[in-house]
Amino acid sequence: MINALTARQLWIHRFHAAPRDTAPTLVCFPHAGGSASYFRPLAGALGPVAEVLSVQYPGRQDRLSEEPITSIPRLADEILTVLESLPRRRLVLFGHSMGACVAFEVARRIERGSSLELLGLVASGRTAPPTLRDTKVRHMDDDGVIAEIRRLNGTDDRLLLDDDIIRMIMPAIRGDYLAVESYRYEPGPALRSPISVLVGDQDPQVSVTEAEEWRDQTEGGFTLRTFPGGHFYLAEQKAQVARALTEDLARFS
């Protein structure tokens, strides 16, 4: 059994030194097939106003030898345990796409009873939890999975042309799609914490109207922002996203 420090080192990446002790902690949850390093640029932009941590799911990069976790609830349980071992207790959770589902389930668990203080949730590029959109990517062959990734424009095409890289990353991608496509929302109390939602105005995965439905998941404040771009608008609108998150961190705190 691994200790709390080792677990944090596996699950949590920190790319920059934390700012003042009173600053909140922003925990970032990647998309399906994504890794902690996806949020490195964002961590640099937000470094002066928050401690930015990025979650590393099993089965990729430095956790390549591990089996992917194919259940959103199990991922949330594992991550909550790790977050409860952090020295800083005031958290804002930020998840993109699949990561929004994981972050939402972690938020629910915090509010059910945890030593952590949830300041707010930021959900990006994802329909509200009760809305089921099964794209059935988990049933596709490798060519179909790659075509879906290209459609969403979330991975450098040069990587998708390298057979060795494809073989290396495909188990994690398939595991993540199984997790998110089999996820089923269980009705429960709305969050007490505020929710901010970010979405690209041309996102083929979620419309602005569907993003608005996150409003029903909170009794706190709700904010919806749209950005030019598709599912991975945040890669194209880095400065604007960083500005929005800075505003959310200030408002939540």
Automatic annotation (TrEMBL):
It comes from the Bacteria. The keyword Ligase does not apply. Signal peptide: none annotated. Transmembrane segments: none annotated. InterPro entries: AB_hydrolase_fold, TEII, TesA-like, Thioesterase. Residues 27-249 form the Thioesterase TesA-like domain. Pfam families: Thioesterase. Keywords: Hydrolase. The keyword Hydrolase applies. Belongs to the thioesterase family. PANTHER family: S-ACYL FATTY ACID SYNTHASE THIOESTERASE, MEDIUM CHAIN (PTHR11487:SF0), THIOESTERASE (PTHR11487). This is Thioesterase. It comes from Streptomyces musisoli.
